[in-house]
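Q: Convert this sequence to structure tokens.
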Amino acid sequence: MSEPTEPTPQAVARSGLDGWPAAVEPLAVPVFDAHTHLDAMAQRAGLDASAEFVAAVMTAAASAGVARAITVGDTVGASQWCVAAAHQHAGVYAAVAVHPTEVAGLDEFGYAELERLAADPRVVAVGETGLDYYWERTEPAAQQHHFRRHIDLAKRVGKPLMIHDRDAHADVLRLLREEGAPDLVVFHAFSGDAAMARECVAAGYVLSFPGVVTFGNAPALREAAALVPPEQLLVETDAPFLTPHPLRGRPNAPHLLPLTVRGLAAAAGHDLDELCAHITANGARIFGLPTE
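A:
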């Protein structure tokens, strides 16, 4: 794979980002997007998930004060794409795993490929993995089996575990206790209440908040965010999903992350610039991302 490169004017010209909401007020202190799906962004727009598309997305993000992004795999194939994208752009890093609703058919060959990918230096986490009891696509027992396998993989390769948890809080926490959590655990798109936030904070887990924290119907999530020390906070887009207010319902993108950062700062009672500095420092500590 080639070395990471910076976006080119040609990439910006071929961006295909006209269908996304316009740029928002940029952040004065840069942050990073802890969880996004650059391939799904392109797919949702009916575009090719090309190196040029990724470069354009990241150019738009940089203009908003979002310096880097972790693009996250949800199948073996998507994980391979994420690693390739990370090698094609200096601001992109990858996480590799199979989503709990996609584990049907995941076999030893799949796990061997995930382990190979996870060893890549541009891969900064094993994820997204976990449990999803909202969608009735995969039996809970199968999800739990594969979640245990992913926990083991994260520990063996020595990289953070990035968790997907939807309507499965108790079982996710139980399996982490039973298997022994990796040194670094990140709850992607944290959706628990204040009690769960306290338990996660006490365990040393990191909680990443999406655009939902800005929704008018999410006061419990804002209450949870207010309990998390800044050293255990991250922000994410989960693009193209979970677009923050006032753009809810539109496709999400890393350049819209400032809306979520501002919402999180208000919910948690943090100064905006100080929160941004904490998020950047957390990225360096958790994922080894550069701070400049």
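Residues 1-15 have pLDDT under 50 and may be disordered.
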